[in-house]
Structure formats: structure tokens, C-alpha cells
Amino acid sequence: MRVGLGGRRRRLDLGRLNGEHFAVMAGAGFDGELIGEADRRLKGRLGRLAYVWTGLRHVRGELVRTRIRVDGSDWFDGEASCVLFGNVGTITGGIPAFDDARPDDGALEVGVATAAGAVDWARTLGRMAAGRSDESPFVRITRGRKIKVRFAAPRTYELDGGARAETKRLKVRVAPGALTVCCPDD
Length: 186
Known about the structure:
The protein is an alpha+beta fold. Helices cover 23% and strands 48% of the residues. Helix 2 (30-37) crosses helix 4 (49-58).
């Protein structure tokens, strides 16, 4: 109660994807399919293992032609299996996805994965687990304030672990300092 009433205030960014806010991470493709299939019942029974189970079922997911514009410039045009937007650096299980992410820097991290198949995903996740996402040959990372994504085929997307319908377009923006939290004094 003391922290809530008198603690230090900190302003954090939010992301906004297709009109909805997210605080941690959002994604489409492999990520969206994994979240969509790891429903509440499965998560209730298996916990974090639900993500591993559904992830293993989707490692052979198809690559889809993807075009990404970041802050008005073409950044990626090619086959992709997953697109992620991060306000923080770690995904489920504490695996670092974006090594330099900060929730108060006025930008979102943007990552695209081109892994296609179990071997590619094993190599990609291994590099991520070692904290070297940007060294994977199947990952590209940048940061930006305004991102537009177009898929050649509809892809499932998710926000903060909640699955959404399929879409062929994503419009993502950062909302700098949109959330104020109370923190204990240092």
C-alpha cells in the first residue's frame, strides 16, 4: 500500500497493434500460432510446458512472404516464419529475444525470424537462450516507433499472450510513456 500511494512513479511505453495496446510483446506467424494453440486449459495442465508442446507442433510452419516498413523505410522483404514486437527483452521461460530492449526508451524492438523447420528453430532458440539473438542467421532485429507489416497470406497474431484472429496487415506504434507505475524507492 505504501508503494502504491507514495512510491516513485515511473512512466513506461506501451505498444499499439491494430488498435489494441500491449505492454510486453506481440507477434504474428509462429508466435501467434503457438499462443493460439496453448489455450487456457492446456496452460492450466502443463504450465510453461504448454508453449514447448505447441511450439514443437509448429516448427515446420510455413514461411510467408512478409514486407516490413519501419519508421517509413523498407526494412524487410522476404519469406518469414515469425514477426515479433517487444517492449521488453524476454519471452516465456526467460529466454532473451531482444537483448537491448527497454520499456521506457520510446521505441519498440522489431524482430523477424526466417527459420524453417526443426533444425533452424533449434539453432535460433539456442542462440536466443544464450543471449545472442542478433547472431542467429535466421533472425533480424531493429527498433522503431511506427511499423507496418504486410503478409502474402493471413497470419494469426497475439498481444501479451492473447491470441487474435488471422490478418494480412499489422499496424504497430509505440505509445511513449503511456503507462505510469508505482515503484519502491531505490
